[in-house]
Write a structure and sequence with these properties.
8-stranded parallel β-sheet, TIM Barrel, 332 residues, binds phosphoenolpyruvate, alpha/beta, 14 strands, single chain, 10 helices, binds manganese (II) ion, 2 domains, Alpha-Beta Plaits
Length: 332
């Protein structure tokens, strides 16, 4: 961190600053410049405790030189993180997670599981506890939904991913699922991040609706810092000025996060676009940009879905997409 001084900073201002920097446990190094002077704040301690240095007299600005996240960064660990789930290697192979937005009934989840498995999906998705924008919308089957997902897993041999909506359900969700999803609205639920960090189970962390990359990576940092290295990031579209689609799929961040972090990153073209006809092109674009996989909403009868029917693929479109993807995988 650099503390840049005002041109007219006095000797006394500088001395007080140096004492404060040292009392925080850092080394203060003077960096004289031809125009103005800066003080380098050096040491392995977390720089956050030095962020109030900007309030001292004589300080023009504070410049952070290092990134606020550490454990998730390639500077800390350059080797890609590979997460094994049911014989699949997330972070190495291109993994497709597919299933309904919500588990609605035994018949529905079994039909989807059978269909997506046949088409080549690796993991079954399905919401049992649903975060809904309005309290009047279907809130999910809860525990009953988890039991149905488990039944489908046993019948079709597909590992499952489902959302943890509230910390109070952590034990039951962890017991039933192979991957715990943390939804966009909970990306900065720091208590939840710390609790799932105490588990070893893989976590699918979705990017918040308005989260910047550093906030997204810092949310992942919470989980790693609490002891769980198995985090899969998910770019699920962000809010922009554009209202023609539900959200905007930020493929920039997929390519950039691959450079900055060793964690796997997948995309969710269903929530990113909100329009089923856009899901195939956005899935192919995600593959092309280097995403490690996809999470897609698939419903046997999207027109009758209790949630997110407008963005869900039917089984035929999903199967067509999987064929296109395998064609891309052969040519790219
Ligand atoms: C979902 O996956 O069904 C979901 C609610 O996703 P998000 O948290 O990204 O909105
Ligand atoms: Mn959904």
């Amino acid at each position: 961190m650099l503390v840049v001084l005002e041109k007219n900073a006095s000797e006394n201002d500088i001395q007080i600053l140096v004492e404060q920097i040292e009392s925080l446990g850092f080394k203060a190094q003077m960096i004289p410049g031809s125009f103005r002077t800066a003080i380098g704040v050096l040491g392995d301690k977390n720089y956050e405790i030095a962020s109030a240095l900007g309030r001292f007299p004589g300080v023009k600005e504070i410049i952070r030189v290092t990134k606020p996240y550490k454990l998730v960064s390639r500077e800390f660990k350059n080797e890609d993180t590979i997460i094994k789930v049911g014989g699949h290697e997330i972070g190495k192979d291109f993994i497709v997670m597919a299933g309904p937005c919500s588990v609605e009934s035994e018949e529905q989840i079994m039909t989807v599981a059978e269909g997506v498995k046949k088409a080549g999906a690796h993991i079954l998705r399905g919401g049992a506890f649903k975060p809904r924008t309005t309290p009047y919308a279907f809130q999910g089957l809860g525990l009953e939904g988890l039991k149905l997902l488990k039944k489908a897993k046993i019948r079709f041999g597909l590992p499952i991913v489902t959302e943890l909506l509230h910390v109070k359900n952590i034990d039951v969700v962890a017991e039933y699922t192979d991957i715990i999803q943390i939804g966009a609205r909970n990306m900065q639920n720091f208590e939840m991040l710390q609790e799932v960090g105490k588990l070893k189970k893989p976590i699918l962390l979705k990017r918040g609706l308005a989260a910047r990359m550093d906030e997204f990576l810092l949310a992942a940092e919470y989980i790693l810092n609490a002891g769980n290295p198995n985090v899969i990031l998910c770019e699920r579209g962000i809010r922009t000025f554009e209202t023609a689609t539900r959200n905007t799929l930020d493929l920039n961040i997929v390519a950039l996060i691959k450079q900055v972090s060793h964690l796997p990153i997948i995309t969710d073209p269903s929530h990113a676009s909100g329009i089923s006809s856009l899901v195939t092109p956005l899935s192919l674009a995600s593959y092309a940009v280097g995403a490690h996989g996809l999470i897609l909403e698939v419903h046997p009868e999207p027109q009758k879905a209790l949630s997110d029917g407008q963005q869900s693929l039917d089984l035929k479109s999903f199967s067509d997409l999987m064929k296109k993807l395998s064609h891309y995988q052969n040519v790219l």
